[in-house]
């Protein structure tokens, strides 16, 4: 779970940086989108490396979900009868709900995101438009409900990351009582940066800063 999560976090950071190309104008953003599909040419055919990266990402998502399901089954089998007398803390309950139900919300959000800006099924401009035109049309002021979907999805990503990154440090044996506070701050800071970094694009379009 920790390793597959690390792969996805790396993807999110790179994806966020790529999204910021939109602030340099249509030409820069469209050039970046074209470059993603032509990486490695002419050594490898068109879209080969991007497809391989997508396969790795999908496998990471599947393995992450399988790990969560497998760990939940192990925990249930190891403790078939609930503990008595000691209630779960608010922090533990929060983390459980965020990671469990937040994961389901994230899966639905990923599906919507793919249908929107990868397969163009729900995008108002469709496949004939440029990447820049699709983003601008998608988050136009009159389509604020789409921006709202992304706000909810990205916030859930941030909450999931906040707990998940810290848990990964612990799983990989990097946490100690001495650095626990620093690692928590690092996890929270990364989650905050990614949340703001992803939301700034749709919000900038919705409020007319990018058009």
From TrEMBL:
An annotated GO cellular component: membrane
TM helices/strands, residue ranges: 49-72, 93-115, 144-161, 182-205
Cellular localisation: Membrane
Lineage, top ranks: Bacteria, Bacillati, Actinomycetota, Actinomycetes, Streptosporangiales
GO MF terms, alphabetically ordered: metal ion binding
Protein name in the entry: Succinate dehydrogenase / fumarate reductase cytochrome b subunit
Keyword Oxidoreductase: no
Keywords on record: Heme, Iron, Membrane, Metal-binding, Transmembrane, Transmembrane helix
